[in-house]
Structure formats: structure tokens, C-alpha cells
Amino acid sequence: MKQETKQGETVLAVRRGPVLVLTLNRPDRLNAWNDELERRYFALLDEAEADPGVRAIVVTGAGRGFCAGADMADLQRIGADEIDSVERPRPRTFPMTVRKPLIAAINGAAAGLGLVEALYCDIRFATPTAKLTTAFVRRGLIAEYGMAWLLPRLVGTSTALDLLMSGRVVTGEEARALGLVDRVVEPDALLDAAVDYATELATLCSPESMRIIKEQVRAALDSEFADAVAEADRLMVESFRHPDAAEGVASYLANRPPAFRPLAPR
């Protein structure tokens, strides 16, 4: 995969071993989301999916923010009668379908669509003073991009309603207590902590197992317990036949790092 370091790009891509670090790069706009940034971000996720050398992905923001939400200047230029005609090559929820671990390193403001993108990731790291807000209600909008489905499953119904109906700001520390983020790390250590975690997944965990587990967890959110158990039983039998199962046991017995296979192409 080609590494991109041009500062003019809306998203920067840098490899750190088996981990790809994607940096939203509109710092003068607190990395506000626009169509150009979306196209590049989604394209880089596609490339990461296809690259066997990339086993985990970390997403962060340049400068003081993670992503301040949709670019207001762009929204002002879109008339209400034009919204339905805006073409998007991918569903907005596309990041949730990425098969490899996707980890957010929330270094500052994550508002509206910026918070949505962070919540689409599998794991979230944040600084203690990072500011997270749904923001939609304070712009006369609704719970956009599946937030009404996603938030209650992360934090519970009443807390989701609190965050959505008030649009209030929570810091990284409160976000951790609520379940919005998983780790709180000081700013100067945030990115390294997220990359170190991603590297551990990339080097010690089976890509195929992680792919299946992600699918299991998402599917189980809307299934009965008995159905989830039956599906796990079926998948367990399949996993015994996969080469990674033999390698996992062999590497453990030999006290060496595992050499798991990369994901097969889609």
C-alpha cells in the first residue's frame, strides 16, 4: 500500500508496521467532514482492506481536534431541495463493515458526524479533555447516521436520550465512565497507545478470528441468545478446520509468536 504524507491531502496515511494510521487532515477546520475527505477516507479504508500487510487501522485527527462534524460552509451551500440528490458512492456506515480492527484515537473535539465516525470504530481511545457531543439537536437536526440505533447499544437508552436530546458536551473522562470510549490516555501518549494496542492485535490475534468475531457481535445485537449460541456452535466447527486454529495451538506450545494468515480478499 502506498504511504501518503502530503500535507495537502484531506487524510494522511502512514504505515507503522502492520498498522495503518489514518489522520483526518483539515486542522484549520478542526478536521470538519466534507465530501473530499469522505471519499479519500473511504478509499484508504478500501486499500487497507485489500492490503495483506495491513492488519489493523488507527484513525485520528490532525491538530487540536478529531473531527468537528460536517463542514458548516458546505452545508450552507446545499439547499434543502438538493439534499436527496447528493450522490454518495458508499453508504455512510461503510466503516462499520471494514473487516480489520478499526481504532479511533480521539485527540480533541468529536462532534456530530465526527462523533459518529468515532463510534463506527471498534475501539476508542481518547484524551481526558477530548470533547464529545452529538450536537444534532442544537442544529435543529435529528439523530443522524444510525445514532438512534448505535448509542443505546453502547450506553443504554436513558443515557443515549440524554446525549441526543441535550447535545451536551462530555469530556473524555466522562465518556469513559458512560461507555462511549474504552481507554483514556494523556495527549502526548494517545496515538502511541492506540498504535501499540493495534499492533498487539495485528501480531498476536488471528485476522480471520477477529473478522468473524466482529460479524458475530454485530449480528448478535439483533438476535435471540439461543440463536447466537447456535451460530457460535456452527462457526466453532468451521474454525477448527481453518489453518489459524492449528497455528494458534502450535505457536502456543512452541512459545513463539503466531504466524497467522492474512485475510483472504473479499
From TrEMBL:
<dbReference type="InterPro" id="IPR001753">
    <property type="entry name" value="Enoyl-CoA_hydra/iso"/>
</dbReference>
<protein>
    <submittedName>
        <fullName>Enoyl-CoA hydratase</fullName>
    </submittedName>
</protein>
<dbReference type="Pfam" id="PF00378">
    <property type="entry name" value="ECH_1"/>
</dbReference>
<dbReference type="GO" id="GO:0006635">
    <property type="term" value="P:fatty acid beta-oxidation"/>
</dbReference>
<dbReference type="InterPro" id="IPR029045">
    <property type="entry name" value="ClpP/crotonase-like_dom_sf"/>
</dbReference>
<dbReference type="GO" id="GO:0003824">
    <property type="term" value="F:catalytic activity"/>
</dbReference>
